[in-house]
Design goal:
By secondary structure, the chain is mainly α. The chain has a single domain, classed as ABC transporter involved in vitamin B12 uptake, BtuC (Orthogonal Bundle). The longest helix is centred in the first third of the chain and has 29 residues. It is globular and about 70 Å long. The mean pLDDT is 87.
């Protein structure tokens, strides 16, 4: 009975560790049967293109969450990146406006990181304030309207970014895949990348190991701002326009995908690849719901329920871990084995 219980426990633990792969497989197995036209090449290409924006933003956000912090400015930063890339093109050209947009995103992240580390302000409060300031800057810059470019070269670039090279894969999708792969490889295979997990897991231990936690937290915020700006810039170039509310729904979508993908809210655990796959899972699920005729309110409700279940599960698992810390599962068995020896010693 004990062996069977241990096997079931290990199986459930394995499923939990790989839950995003299970969810992804279920979505792509069920939706072609339930939603008309879901499995067509054109629709799957649309799903991949729709995932690019949030997947790019999730790269930096995952890094911040691994450090045990929170960045609420990602939606406003991606909007700023798109606005600057499109709005500054007549003055700086596409390369110049793109670089300025990414630099602006990195600057936003730098300010957030310094406020959190130097001023000792909670990241939720700090980035909430920064988000409000950024939204004000965006509305002042755009006057609450959209910005666009209408030159023939702009439309050619947009067509290039959105037209598949091969079935399913457009240049923007390939750029997103490359960014996710690079970030995942950096976190997995480099010492600097692994130090982010050390900082998020235990900053005191990181300090005694010779790692400066403040530098890594600031770096995570800089990457978060830059990746959000890159996502917004690429989206703006592919659409030849940017709206002042472009990133309005991005924040909650990225938070949900990152947590469902397995990144711990307390820090020290996470994966950029799994966050990106979670974004793809949610995008495919919503696309299938559209094909089934579900209203948008129901889609939001289902996404919220999935996130709530995962958060409750993570909290329960953390509580069980705290209770089990320091326990010896085989203690009773050890005591039974020692009992005869103790009796012999007492007789002698």
């Amino acid at each position: 009975m004990t062996m069977r219980k241990e096997r079931i426990t290990s199986l459930l633990a394995a499923l939990d560790r790989n839950r995003i792969y299970v969810l992804l497989a279920l979505v792509f197995a069920i939706m072609p049967l339930a939603a008309h036209g879901f499995g067509t090449v054109n629709n799957l290409t649309t799903v991949l293109k729709s995932s690019c924006l949030n997947a790019t933003v999730a790269i930096g956000f995952t890094l911040v969450l691994i450090c045990g912090e929170l960045d609420l400015t990602i939606g406003a930063t991606l909007t700023l990146g798109a606005m600057l890339t499109i709005g500054l093109q007549p003055h700086l050209g596409r390369p110049g406006s793109f670089l300025v947009a990414v630099a602006a995103g990195a600057l936003v992240g730098l300010c957030n990181g310094l406020i959190v580390t130097k001023a000792r302000v909670n990241s939720f409060i700090a980035t909430l304030g920064s988000m409000t300031i950024l939204q004000g800057i965006i509305y002042i810059y755009s006057h609450g309207a959209s910005v666009s470019v209408t030159g023939p070269a702009d439309f050619r670039l947009a067509d290039f970014l959105e037209k598949p090279f091969v079935p399913l894969l457009t240049p923007r999708v390939l750029i997103t895949v490359a960014l996710v792969a690079f970030a995942q490889g950096f976190l997995t295979w480099t010492r600097t990348g692994r130090n982010f997990f050390l900082v998020g897991g235990n900053r005191e231990t990181a300090w005694f190991s010779g790692v400066n936690p403040a530098r890594y937290v600031v770096g995570a915020f800089v990457v978060s701002g830059a990746s959000a700006a890159v996502g917004g810039a690429l989206f703006g170039l592919s659409m030849c326009s940017a709206t002042s509310n472009l990133g309005a729904g991005c924040l909650m979508d990225v938070i949900a995908a990152t947590i469902v993908g397995g990144t711990a809210m307390t820090g020290g655990k996470g994966s950029v690849l799994r966050s990106a796959l979670a974004v793809l899972t949610f995008t495919a699920m919503f696309n299938g719901f559209n094909g089934m005729g579900f209203p948008s309110e129901l889609k939001i409700l289902i996404a919220g329920l999935v996130l709530a279940l995962v958060v409750i599960h993570e909290a329960a698992a953390a509580r069980r871990h705290e209770r089990a810390r320091g326990r010896r599962p085989m203690l009773m068995e050890e005591l039974r084995r020692k009992a005869p020896l103790q009796k012999k010693e007492s007789r002698t």
